[in-house]
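Practice record 12: protein with zinc ion.
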Amino acid sequence: MQIEQFGCLRDNYGFLVHDPESGETACIDTPEVEPILAALARRGWRLTAIWNTHHHPDHAGGNLAIREATGCTIVGPAAEAARIPGIERSVAEGDEVRLGAHRFRVHDTPGHTSGHIVYHCPEQQVAFVGDTLFALGCGRLFEGTPQQMWASLRKLLEWPDDTLVYCAHEYTAANARFARSVEPDHKGLAAREREIEALRAKGQPTVPTRMGLERATNPFLRADDPALAEALGLAGAPAEQVFARTRELKDRF
Ligand SMILES: [Zn+2]
């Protein structure tokens, strides 16, 4: 399985996933038409499907133009089917989408939007998480509650450390500044911030990230970590409350 990652709009990433055996290619979301078509042409791949994660225009806005240009099918979240342009197949928790012989499991991850989904291929240890999880961050809660988002993120926490996580935006440097402001003494975080700054100074992406690294350093995945609760003055509080407080602080950061 081959993955092509490229910048779209201001800070989005576009992704193509290709299976050389079958010749099938999927595009994860459609932030911007031209870079997607250019990436297909560059690799010489024929697009067979769009897999949408959620309905926001910087994720599904290019659906119809891309289908018009390629004849691909459009797969998206069942709970947002009415808001996904051109959707032909609705999927939800427990469903599977295939790319040749590769199987991706669909998980419902409400929070950023009410019907957000993610695509996870356990066999290849690869996941496309849209705006649910970011490197050192998570999506804003436009349509969901902190309780819902924490439950969604706990599903991702089931994945093995080596899982490569493809997030839809390059927000990592700002996320690192926030995370450090909450836990200035977290050693792993300080080291990671230096790596992130070095990458960004060279214009390189910080995406994909690894689940193990996020588990260890991303405050939004550590709402059940007593050290984070303590740093927030919430020692002994339930994880949902720690998560809600972290999200609230980030919204105002
Ligand atoms: Zn979004």
